[in-house]
Specification:
It is built from three helices and ten strands. A hairpin with a 2-residue loop joins strand 6 and strand 7. About 2% of the residues have low confidence.
Length: 282
């Protein structure tokens, strides 16, 4: 009996060793494939996304008095906020304490516009612009190859002194070249709406698009005034075809690994049974 007990114990130990070896090899192989798939999925970009700072994106300088206070003429913008305008046709205005807009923005705090209490305004035939050349509080920015640039913001339609559905022109320029533009439709009177325009830069920046970036916010095509706020400019890399293909391959590989998890366990079980039979035959 003692000999039989020892043989059973030895077979059990050998079976456990074989089972552990099989499982270890398969677990290692599967996790290796998972790591490879994740690396392929994570390596599809060609660079990093970023945000280009805009000087005074909410038109909070100069600070105007509540109740509709505004600036116009030569002093229509602050000396360090980067914006320029067309004399008496553009400026900043404080909308608090007025009935210009119906909505309360930013959730709380009594804000009257998306970015606070003030807006930039452009009357008929007027326009607001900011050139990103490092002057008057601006940053310096030019196009980078292989990137998508997105200019966005809010456009407001002041009650009783707004604009109509024919809209207002917004543009993004590189030097003197317009690279993105759109005529933004007027939102409902007394409200704001979001807008955005984008431009995909070729891998090599065209020679006529190497100048400083410029933001152009136009006045109404029809009507009295357009209001602007929350202006932002960002960029992100354009995925290259080879990286897109690698990402797709990585995704397919990962799905295949997950889909095969049960068959792998069944295969291990079959190998385990075969190992038991081999041990019994020894």
């Amino acid at each position: 009996m003692q000999g039989t007990s020892n043989e059973v114990s030895n077979r059990s130990n050998r079976l456990m060793q074989v089972d552990h070896a099989i499982v270890g090899r398969n677990v290692w192989a599967n996790w290796s494939c998972v790591v490879v798939a994740l690396i392929l999925l994570g390596g599809t970009g060609t660079g990093r996304a970023g945000i280009i700072p805009i000087a005074d994106p909410n038109f909070n300088t100069p600070a105007e008095s509540s109740g509709g206070g505004y600036s116009t003429g030569a002093g229509n913008f602050g000396s360090t906020d980067g914006w320029t305008g067309d004399g008496s046709r553009t400026g900043v205005q404080n909308a608090s304490g007025t009935s210009y807009f119906n909505d309360t923005w930013a959730g709380s705090g009594g804000f009257y516009t998306p970015g606070g209490n003030q807006v930039g305004y452009a009357n008929s035939e007027g326009a607001i612009s900011q050139t990103l050349n490092g002057a008057n509080g601006t940053t310096t920015a030019t196009l980078l190859g292989g990137q998508v640039y997105i200019l966005s913001g809010y456009i407001g339609n002041r009650s009783g002194f707004g604009f109509t559905g024919s809209g207002a022109l917004v543009e993004l320029l590189a030097g003197s070249t317009v690279i993105a533009s759109e005529t933004v439709a007027a939102p409902a009177a007394g409200s704001f709406a979001t807008w955005s325009i984008s431009y995909t830069v070729p891998a090599s920046v065209p020679s006529n698009e190497t100048g400083d970036l410029e933001i152009y916010l136009g006045g109404p095509n029809s009507g009295s005034q357009v209001n602007y706020g929350e202006i932002s400019l960002s960029y992100s890399p354009v995925p290259e075809p080879v990286n897109v293909a690698l990402g797709i391959f990585g995704g397919v590989l990962l799905v295949a690994i997950l889909a095969r998890s049960r068959p792998v366990r069944n295969r291990i079980h079959c190998w385990r049974v075969a190992a038991v039979r081999w041990i019994d035959a020894v």
